[in-house]
Amino acid sequence: MAVTEINGANINYEVLGDAGPWVVLTPAGRGAKEMVKTLGEAICAAGYRVLLHDRRNCGASDVVIDGEESEQEIWADDLYELLSRLGAVPVYAGGGSAGCRLSLLLTMRHAGSTRGLLVWSVTGGVVAAERLAYNYYGQFIDAAQRGGLPAVCDTEFFKQRIEQNPSNKERLLSMDPTRFQRVMQRWQDFFTESAELPVIGATEAQLKSIKVPACIVPGNDDVHPRKVGEGLHQILPNSELHYLRTDAELAALRERDPAEVLAETRQRLATIFIPFLNRLEGRGA
């Protein structure tokens, strides 16, 4: 694992492999890079060099609650800087849910930064906007209003950030509570204002600007409705659509062990994305 300072935050990252076209994978939610490591290892074994990183405010990277743009856009700008330093531009950018949003934003905000997209569990709709806005930001605004930054530090999420990176506690406690709430509110607005958009954080016109090849795997729940992933496929002019499971397989998931399902999901994603990458690289199927 390596650490580098980017835009005022120390970012933890890891590179799998030392040769081949670059791929970056970003996990869902505020997950740490380990969440996509198994998939990254499979793609690396197929001849690609894979970047994994903890976004700011995630994993073992620094917590920095600041900035004039949304957290999602800041993540995209951080990633572009990291990729540029590594000589990894243009990159195949992939991720699920929040990682999907970051991959799309990276492509839209930084022309020429990506050569293809590997996205799954595409997020959109009113339920997703409201639920994620509260989970990512609203609950911490509430905590700050109740007990200031000490109460924020005591939330489960920030306790984990402090355990993984003890310096995060001092940074949080040194913040002005009003400033903290104002930044969190702005970041929350990114979601609530996206409820009617095709995907969280992007208009149809913005999405149509994406011309690179895209491999899309829709989700199947209220936060990642299948129709949102299918809608993204209809918007992106150079995309293909794949499904992880049949309707019958989806119905049977509740009876299965979650860890087994997760492992199988990563394997199935690999069997979709690796042939897609190989076709783009002229390596055959």
Q: What can you tell me about this protein's structure?
A:
This protein is an alpha/beta fold. It has two domains: 2-124 and 202-280, Alpha/Beta hydrolase fold, catalytic domain (Rossmann fold, 3-Layer(aba) Sandwich), CATH 3.40.50.1820; 130-190, no CATH class. 49% of the residues lie in helices and 15% in strands. It has eleven helices and eight strands. It has helices at 37-45, 71-86, 98-109, 126-153, 156-164, 167-173, 177-192, 204-208, 226-235, 247-251, 258-280; strands at residues 2-6, 9-16, 22-26, 49-53, 91-96, 114-120, 214-217, 239-241. The protein has an eight-stranded mixed β-sheet with strand order 1-2-4-3-5-6-7-8, with helices on both faces. β5 (91-96), α3 (98-109) and β6 form a beta-alpha-beta unit. α2 (71-86) packs across α3 (98-109) and α4 packs antiparallel against α7. The radius of gyration is 18 Å and the shape is globular.
